[in-house]
């Protein structure tokens, strides 16, 4: 594993970061980090690869996530981390505006 400790060889900003937040710093490749997390997972069967969220249907008890292949997954809570063009955020905005019209404005979506 290619990790670099937050030592004096790192840029000054990392030292300042440690000083201000109180945490040491590690630098790691963006490709490597998810692979390490994945390899450490005890149960990989719960990870669905190459799937796209296309819809989320909520009721008072649960949330149903619909994927592009048509499969559906029901849970208590949806936590998303689907990036800057988040589909989940778009659905969340749509649902909010259905409940309270004009609640999420165009300005807020920018
Ligand atoms: C070329 C480039 C260089 C960059 N360089 C730097 C840098 O040097 N330093 C820095 O700090 N930041 C950099 N960034 C920005 C950095 O990549 C982002 O800030 C960071 O990746 C955001 O992480 P995230 O997890 O929110 O989203 P992402 O890394 O975008 O991850 C989102 C994930 O959600 C998945 N996803 C998207 N839509 C769906 C959907 N509908 N259903 C299911 N899954 C979905 C995607 O496939 C992806 O795996 C760079 C970005 C780019 C494009």
From TrEMBL:
<dbReference type="GO" id="GO:0004497">
    <property type="term" value="F:monooxygenase activity"/>
</dbReference>
<dbReference type="InterPro" id="IPR036188">
    <property type="entry name" value="FAD/NAD-bd_sf"/>
</dbReference>
<protein>
    <recommendedName>
        <fullName>FAD-binding domain-containing protein</fullName>
    </recommendedName>
</protein>
<dbReference type="InterPro" id="IPR050562">
    <property type="entry name" value="FAD_mOase_fung"/>
</dbReference>
């Amino acid at each position: 594993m290619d990790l670099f400790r937050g030592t004096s060889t790192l840029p000054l900003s990392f030292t300042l970061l440690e000083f201000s937040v109180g945490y040491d710093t590690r630098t790691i490749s963006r490709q490597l980090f998810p692979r390490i997390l994945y390899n450490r997972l005890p149960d990989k069967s719960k990870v669905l690869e190459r799937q796209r969220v296309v819809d989320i249907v909520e009721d008072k008890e649960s949330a149903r996530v619909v994927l592009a292949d048509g499969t559906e997954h029901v849970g208590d809570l949806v936590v998303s981390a689907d990036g800057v063009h988040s589909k989940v955020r778009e659905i969340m905005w749509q649902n909010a505006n259905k409940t309270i019209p004009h609640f999420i404005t165009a300005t807020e979506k920018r």
